[in-house]
Amino acid sequence: MKPEFEEYAQNLAEKINQKDANELDGFADDRNLEFNWLTTGQMILTFQAPPNFVSRINELYDDLMHKGKLINYSKWLLGKVVDEYSLYLDDDNHSKVENHNFLPDDIHEWIKDRIHQYLRFTNTSYVGIKTAAAWINDYKAGEYNPVHIHLGNFEVFKDPLLVSNPHKVGLVGLMTLKVPNNMGKEFTNDGDIEKKRNGYTEFVGGAHGAQFAPLTTVIKLQPGDFVVFPYDLLHCVYPHFNENETRRTFPTNIDVYLNE
Ligand SMILES: [Fe+2]
Questions:
Q1: Cα 120 to ligand 1 centroid, rounded to whole Å
Q2: CA of 191 to the centre of ligand 1 (A)
Q3: CA 94 to CA 98: how far, in whole Å?
Q4: Does residue 239 contact residue 142 with C-beta atoms inside 8 Å?
Q5: Distance (Å, rounded) from C-alpha 81 to C-alpha 182?
Q6: Distance between CA 231 and CA 243 in Å, rounded?
Q7: How many Å lie between the centroid of ligand 1 and the Cα of residue 31?
Q8: From ligand 1's centre to the CA of 152, what distance in Å?
Q9: Domains in the chain, please, with CATH?
């Protein structure tokens, strides 16, 4: 599939031409959804996904798992997570797995809209975007994701002997689907909110020009949180210790083609 900017721009123009003033207001709101931001020097935008997206992806995942239709990715991913299953792959260089798409179109479009929004917010000059991969991480007690970056396929932070040559510039759109009510007892400093890490995600700042920027940014994701951040922003996920519940996230890797 080719970068879709032209199609996106054309659809936008058609919609604007078709809409009367009232509807246009609604459409404009849709394109510029409210968000908060965090920074490590690089921007991290956090949106709220519609609640029905969260329930629908959860149901979709449970249903596809029940039918045995999903491919387990854990052997190719760095995450110490047994249940990592693919929902989308568009990678013509990858011979191990056929391309596939289980994503509902409206949810996929909403995710891509947020990527365009990030690129507008950061004044990025770009010619197009292309979704490379999407999958589910379902963290059980004790499972975690070591410090890593993303690339334009599903292999994260692999050794330098990558057979394929994935696109290296892009954005991750990370939707949070489930978070245990109780992440389990912290081994130390259990009552200190500043030192909590169970089930938290931590983003690590870059080494260049880091003055007045936080060294790291730690967040506790909640269901419905949708976080957009660059492929090369180092991050990790700490384990939770709830034996009865899982912490479930749904990342999508979207390549960005810069106007170079
Ligand atoms: Fe990640």
A1: 23
A2: 28
A3: 8
A4: yes
A5: 19
A6: 31
A7: 25
A8: 12
A9: 38-258 (2.60.120.620)
Cβ pair 36, 163 in contact under 8 A: no
Q: What is the pLDDT of residues 168-199, one digit of tens each?
A: 899 999 999 999 999 999 999 988 888 999 99
Of 183, 180, 178, 182, residue with least CA distance to 224:
178
* Ligand 1 centroid distance, CA of 95 (Å): 23
Ligand 1 centroid from CA 100, angstroms: 21
Contact criterion met (CB below 8 Å) for 58 and 120: no
| Cα-to-centroid distance, 102 and ligand 1 (Å) | 20
- d(CA 194, ligand 1 centre) in Å: 23
Tokens at residue 210, please? Answer: 């880091």
Q: Calculate how far, in angstroms, residue 202's C-alpha sits from the geometric centre of ligand 1.
A: 10
Any residues with CB less than 8 A from the CB of 237 and at least 6 apart, and which?
79, 137, 139, 144, 145, 199, 200, 201, 202, 249
Question: Per residue in 128-180, pLDDT tens?
Answer: 999 999 999 999 999 999 998 888 766 554 444 455 678 889 999 999 999 99
In the reported structure, the alpha carbon of residue 249 is separated from the centroid of ligand 1 by a whole-number distance in angstroms of 10
Q: 3 CA to middle of ligand 1, Å?
A: 23
Placement of tokens 């909110």 in the chain? 193
Reference 124, options 132, 115, 112; nearest CA is: 115
In angstroms, what CA-CA distances link 249 with 147, 159, 217, 231? Answer: 16, 24, 18, 16
> What count of residues does the chain have?
260
Could you tell me the distance, in angstroms and rounded to a whole number, from the CA of residue 150 to the centre of ligand 1?
6
- Please determine, for residue 27, whether its predicted confidence score (pLDDT) is greater than 80: no
**Model pTM score:** 0.84
